[in-house]
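Supplementary Note 3. Input sequence used for the single-chain structure prediction.
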Amino acid sequence: MQRDIALRLDAMLMQARGSIDQVAHYMKRHLTDAEFDDFRQSLGASMVALIEISNALHQQFPDTVPEELRSDEISQ
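The predicted structure, written as discrete structure tokens, is reproduced below.
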């Protein structure tokens, strides 16, 4: 995979995670606690799956890890 493709994919994955986060907040505000609980695990699993894809991209291209996600060892 080319680095620029990995960067574009990671940006799209960030947008997807943001969208899922918006969905979760909307559901939390507009559903009963019981209704929201029915979706909580699926929302979390979706986020985890997207994060795992980003992590795989970051392993292949470590320089693409966003600064706020870098450990002290990496950023020094």
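The chain has a mean pLDDT of 92. The first helix runs from residue 3 to 30.
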